[in-house]
Amino acid sequence: QAPEIEGDYYQLARLLTKEEREKQLEVREFMNEHVKPIANEYWNKAQFPMHIIPKMAELNIAGLTYEGYNSPMGSYLLEGFITVEMARVDTSISTFFGVQSGLAMGSIYFCGSEEQKKKWLPPMQRLEKIGAFGLTEPNVGSAVAGGLETTCKKEGDKWILNGQKKWIGNATFADLVIIWARNVEDNEVRGFIVEKGTAGFKAEKQEDKMALRTVQNALITLTDCEVSEENRLQNCDSFRDTSKVLKATRAGVAWQAVGCARGAYELALNYSHTRKQFGKPIGSFQLVQDLLVEMLTDLTAIQSMAFHLSKLQDEGRMTDQQASLAKVACSRHTREIVGKAREIFGGNGILLEHDIARFVADAEAIYTYEGTKEVNSLIVGRDITGISAFV
Ligand code: FAD
């Protein structure tokens, strides 16, 4: 196998199978050829490069771990490496993919009926149908497990949805949005596949974000929005079912943080060779080397942690709490790593043309979404002490 580039210092990629390594490198090539040249431009104008979707579909990587339904089948470990390849170039693109493959397809895979899976998963796997995942609300972020304000009410063979959803990635152009709502009858959460064009469904783009600007987040308003019983996720009776989706995607976000950190480290290492001060490359100064080594230390630690988490996942042994611990650790260290990378760029670190500014901003979103640092810490805290700090 070819030697791995700088950011995989412990050569974890050598532990992939030959086929997995080939897929990893295929995704790398896709990102370098089709995303890298346009990443800053689309981030700056806050638009999504829709034209890359058919090219991404050719990689055949969506829904990798879902058995059946057109899935090419692959390990969670490979999925993690693919996430790194995306995020080390553009975290927005890996977020688009994570929403599609993890959150939207995952909701149908874990909570849908056989019929719903057969209908929706194959076209979503081919990226012909794009999905979104609507859980968070303007008034309910961290507290989604207990207090959704969006309601659903059964009337005959239809459900009536009312409420708002905030931050919903891909939702401005998605063909379907998974909406989670509280059933007024029993106060338990239900999930719905709301198709584009449904009366009473409105998605408005959230403007002026300072992170993940390429991702199209929407504020969704549901006004007496009618959804058929056929489009209710048939295997979801409470938030416990929603959590099955989040368990897998939190592990994915840990890998995304690794990718963002790795991209930033590699940019800084490269810059330390090309930028000269006092007649020497800045990488020749002891203090700059120390910064680089601090970054590499943390990067290697979180890479190894995510790697082992995926191994547990592949063995069917990963717990929710282990996923939360990795999400906390990886996103926290990433925030520090991108900050140090920017420091190495000096003033150029805040210019978009040098890429690193985009990584610094995007790390803030990773730190917060899929459960904040505090919320994921409390999930682990409850596990280790046996005492819930939530109530
Ligand atoms: P809040 O819940 O208001 O939290 C504010 C602060 O209070 C945080 O620091 C938090 O940790 C702290 N806090 C809250 N409760 C406690 C507690 N009990 N103890 C200690 N501290 C606490 N959601 C979706 O459904 N779909 C998406 O596609 C999606 N995409 C997103 C994309 C981006 C770029 C962002 C920023 C968010 C996205 N989200 C999405 C929402 C995301 O999951 C929420 O932002 C996140 O869960 C936090 O909720 P909040 O922003 O309302 O913060």
From TrEMBL:
The protein's name in its UniProt record: Acyl-CoA dehydrogenase
Domain Acyl-CoA dehydrogenase/oxidase N-terminal as annotated: residue spans: 17-126
Coiled coil start-end: none
The Acyl-CoA dehydrogenase/oxidase C-terminal domain, residue ranges: 242-384
Highest taxon in the source lineage: Bacteria
PANTHER family linked: ACYL-COA DEHYDROGENASE (PTHR43188:SF1), ACYL-COENZYME A OXIDASE (PTHR43188)
Cofactor entry: FAD
GO molecular function: acyl-CoA dehydrogenase activity; flavin adenine dinucleotide binding
UniProt KW Thylakoid keyword: no
Pfam families: Acyl-CoA_dh_1, Acyl-CoA_dh_M, Acyl-CoA_dh_N
Keywords, alphabetical: FAD, Flavoprotein, Oxidoreductase
One record GO biological process: fatty acid beta-oxidation
Residue span(s) of domain Acyl-CoA oxidase/dehydrogenase middle: 132-225
Family, per entry: Belongs to the acyl-CoA dehydrogenase family.
